[in-house]
Amino acid sequence: MSTRPADTAARDAVVVGSGPNGLAAAVRLAQAGHRVTVLEAAATIGGGTRTEELTLPGLLHDVCSAVHPFALASPYLATLPLADHGLVWRWPEIDLAHPLDDGTAGVLVRDLDETCRGLGADGAAWRGVFGPLVDRFDDLAGDVLGPIVRIPDHPVSMARFGLRAGLPATVLARRFRTPQARALFAGSAAHAFRPLSRPVTAAVGVLLTAAGHRHGWPVPEGGSAAITRALASLLTELGGEIVTGRAVRTSADLPRAAITMLDTGPQAAAEILGDRLPARRRRTYRRWRYGPGVFKVDLAVRGGVPWTAEAARRAGTVHVGGTLEQIAASEAAVCRGEMPESPFVLVAQQHLADPTRSVGDVHPVWAYAHVPAHWAGDGERVVLDQLERFAPGLRERVVATAVRSPADHEVDNANYVGGDIAGGANDLRQLVGRPRLTPDPYATGVDGVWLCSASTPPGAGVHGMCGLRAAERALRQVDQTTRRSRRLR
């Protein structure tokens, strides 16, 4: 990987931003024979897919993205020889646990049969909801991880998904009778950052659960940065290069290129392109709305987290928030701009699958709470209080902490406006029109420029599909232009 000033004038494709979507777009363009340069404003590549020593020397913490069911589910990343470039996947014994106040927990493992047995009275209902999707998940993923406004390649699988995904999460959860099964589904649905009583909020929970039963919820050995390093290494092998410390704020900062990909939010794209954008498109981009934020607390914990629920001690991911009803109430409050006393907290214990991240018996624990956008309260206290609720005695084991507020997230990554790590509010309008209602959501209206960030379909997640879809669209346009020029000669 090159970090020296590049001769970008000699390049015919430029990608702004080195997050997973920017790198995926760059790799696809390089595969098609284009000479690609990636421009990254920060000193370190990867965007939200980085790993740093945030608390103690040698202790590896993921900066943002942590657990990666969609990376293995990605139809594009699965085609890339990332293992040849150092990427190794690790799985915990238990993929997901959702503890409750009585010491029990809802438990998800990759094996659907084992999960159903563990859910007891709800095992048959769990299989009925997710079994048909797991069986055809790889077909389903290709359709789901793309623009909504199009004809699916597998309409039957998409119809099954749609019957479940279109429901409010609270409605679909009624299929289950036990608090453990209801909470297990609600925690996954809460990744949508929306009130769980709203239509389509079941979609994220359904997709995450089906992905977990098909591919598990794995982590990369050595941290999420291993995904970035593998993509960057592959890009370099294909002749591409990456330039760090190169901010792009206006069109004047963009080198000339036949193809320009922007791994930025719509508002940032409007600032960069300015008057080059058609007026209507510029207004649409500037009206793009962001959702709630996150407050992240990284912990160095001696001996691990003392969860009351035994299964949580073996789980790579733990959803902390109590019952379905409690999670629904806290998510609704956050989306109203109110900070709940007991927010939903997502916890990752990557060291259980990947011991290389620990130092002796001190382990890195990754946690963030859903909070209102731009919230500036005492997030460390709130997160630790919620964790202590299900793991009494945790504070006594904490050796060091590092916190990152919504404002810190935005400073670290300009795409995380107000602490929104999802690339924009996931309400119905912005899910369908991401970033606008059109069969071609990646086109900016400026010749040769496409948007490829998580603000385009299919949205947030380390899957690279936003980058792939945008790059494929750009390649088709270049091919059409080339053929048209040949006909005119």
Commentary on this structure:
The chain has 489 residues and is an alpha/beta fold. The protein has a domain at 8-68 and 77-86 and 220-288 and 424-488: FAD/NAD(P)-binding domain. The chain is built from 18 helices and 16 strands. The chain has helices at residues 20-31, 69-73, 112-118, 123-135, 137-144, 155-165, 169-172, 179-189, 202-215, 225-237, 266-273, 279-286, 324-335, 379-390, 394-397, 406-412, 428-432, 465-488; strands at 13-16, 36-40, 51-52, 61-62, 89-90, 94-99, 105-108, 219-220, 241-244, 259-262, 293-302, 315-320, 345-348, 362-371, 398-404, 449-451. The strands form four sheets. The protein has a seven-stranded mixed sheet with strand order 7-6-12-13-14-11-15, sandwiched between helices. The protein has a five-stranded parallel sheet with strand order 9-2-1-10-16, covered by helices on one side. A two-stranded antiparallel ribbon has the order 3-4. Strand 6 (94-99) and strand 7 form a beta hairpin. Helix 1 packs parallel to helix 10 (225-237) and helix 11 packs across helix 12 (279-286). The longest helix is centred in the last third of the chain and has 24 residues, at 465-488. It is globular. The two termini are 40 Å apart. Residues 1-10 have low confidence and may be disordered.
